[in-house]
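Entry 14. Ran structure prediction on the chain below.
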Amino acid sequence: MGRTPKPLRIYVHPSMVEWVEVQALAAQGHVVQALADPGDLILSPTAWKMDQDHRKYVNLAVSAARRQKYPKGDVT
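Output, structure tokens:
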């Protein structure tokens, strides 16, 4: 995949940093940053629950976030 012209800043739990899906997002030009102390609960309008069972939804979450941040034009 190429580098995205419309990158996102994506905050992830430290346990997710090494996921292949997360590394691919970084390689595309997105800024991936691990939360310093995520605690037990993260509340956010754009937070998605991600654990091993939800890994297949990483790209869906990124697509939804890009549509929200960049509502007009191509977000691929």
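Residues 2 and 22 are 15 Å apart (CA to CA). Will compare against last week's run tomorrow.
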